[in-house]
Specification:
Rossmann fold, six-stranded parallel sheet, 2 domains, four-stranded parallel sheet, about 425 residues, alpha/beta, about 40% helix
Length: about 425
């Protein structure tokens, strides 16, 4: 596996993570449990971390030096791909490794993969995680827009890789219609959920664990703090709901971002949200809880009465799936890939982008009707039962096998 720009162990190394980190880590773990040997190559971002980490008996992470061994903004990383490729080749040669399949995550990893297979021939399976054209469609400012080089690279990758995993039907259509992907090349396989970890916890117990007032109702957001996540719209919806129902005792908890420093040192987007919190006079009821470990997230999901994912674009929405696995109702925009799991009778859980009036009424209805909230929570819990990582990894293994040349001998253990 190639995960060039972000390490699957980032949360354990004290760095901010997102859905892709969780995806690569959990998929690799499950593949190794099913007898598949997995090496994940990622750019080294900390010279104090060991370059080779043995995560499980059949799964290790290799931190490859490429550029400074420190965090670098994603848009500046392209220049270090050649060094990453050279050092990855060197490691493979020194170790005498042979791999049968390469699985690349995000376009930068795909570019590295295309170079690696020049002298290490093997099929490439590609997971983009996000698409530049879709990000540009919903970009809120110029800093969010992706450059033409990335779009051209994604288009080239679509044509040259062997198989593409799309996390949802909508992303598959975007790949076909915007990037000219052949129908036989793209397979829809959603991300998995660790159902042994993400499962319902008694709400009172969860609130006690987190130090949350048991009398407060909780609305929760979990994800990266960036404009396309639509968190500003959620703040507007909170304001509208509380103006309509001032007696509601409700708080919004925002999980994500680094809030360990004074607000003056927060990220630009966090500072914008902090300013908006003051302008809307929501300071007492909106809490920035920062990045949280995976071990703690089930307690947050279970403490919440409603989880909201107001994204402008979301290829799937792993946080929403995790919340559903904890039996918590999730309101998501109709542009998120996971919205396809929610059927028509639960239209209350589907909102539209930049529509705080609608979102406010949906949140209010769920908060005010305990019985309906319980029923919806049980229904969404059933919706994610098929997303166990065991099942998802088995589907991906089949895709790996299909990508192998027809005349190749199927090995007993596929080394990735």
């Amino acid at each position: 596996m190639i995960s060039f720009h972000t390490c699957p162990l980032a949360s354990q190394e004290g760095k901010e993570t997102g859905g892709m980190n969780v995806y690569v880590l959990e998929l690799s773990r499950e593949l190794s449990r099913q007898g598949i040997a997995v090496d994940v190559f990622t750019r080294s971002q900390d010279d104090l971390q060991p370059h080779v980490v043995q995560v499980d008996p059949l799964f290790r992470v290799i931190h490859v030096p490429a550029g400074p061994e420190s965090p670098v903004p994603k848009k500046q990383l392209l220049q270090y791909v050649p060094e990453f490729v050279a050092n990855t080749r060197k490691f493979i040669a020194e170790q005498g490794m042979r791999y049968d399949v390469m699985h690349c995550h995000y376009y930068l990893s795909g570019l590295a993969g295309l170079e690696l297979v020049r002298d290490l021939p093997m099929p490439i399976v590609m997971t983009f995680h996000t698409l530049a054209l879709m990000k540009n469609l919903v970009a809120r400012d110029e800093l969010e827009r992706e450059e033409g080089d990335r779009i051209e690279a994604e288009y080239d990758l679509v044509q040259r890789v062997d198989k593409i995993i799309a996390p949802s039907e909508s992303d598959m259509r975007y790949l076909q219609y915007l990037y000219a992907a052949g129908e036989d090349k793209v397979v829809v396989i959603p991300p998995g959920v660790d159902l042994d970890h993400f499962k319902p916890v008694d709400q009172a117990e969860a609130k006690s664990k987190l130090g949350i007032d048991p009398c407060d109702q909780i609305i929760l957001f979990v994800g990266r703090i960036e404009p396309l996540k639509g968190i500003d719209m959620l703040l507007y919806a909170m304001k509208i709901m509380l103006e309509k129902k001032p007696d509601l005792r409700v708080c919004l908890w925002i999980i994500g971002g680094d809030v360990s420093q004074p607000p003056s040192q927060w990220s630009k987007e966090l500072q914008k949200l902090e300013t908006l919190r003051h302008l809307l006079k929501l300071t007492p009821v909106v809490h920035f809880a920062g990045q949280q470990l995976q071990e703690v997230l089930p307690y947050y999901y279970s403490a919440a009465d409603v989880v909201v994912m107001p994204s402008h674009y979301e290829s799937f929405g792993m946080a929403a799936a995790e919340a559903m696995a904890c039996g918590t109702p999730v309101i998501t925009t109709n542009v998120a890939g996971i919205s396809s799991l929610i059927d028509e009778k639960h239209e209350l859980l589907i909102t539209s982008v930049n529509n705080p009036l609608l979102l406010a009424s949906q949140m209010e209805l769920l908060l005010s009707d305990h019985q309906k909230r319980e029923q919806v929570g049980q229904n969404v819990l059933q919706k994610v039962k098929d997303l166990h990582w065991q099942s998802i990894a088995a589907q991906i293994i089949r895709l790996y096998e299909e990508s192998l040349p027809n005349d190749s001998q199927q090995p007993a253990v596929v080394h990735l």
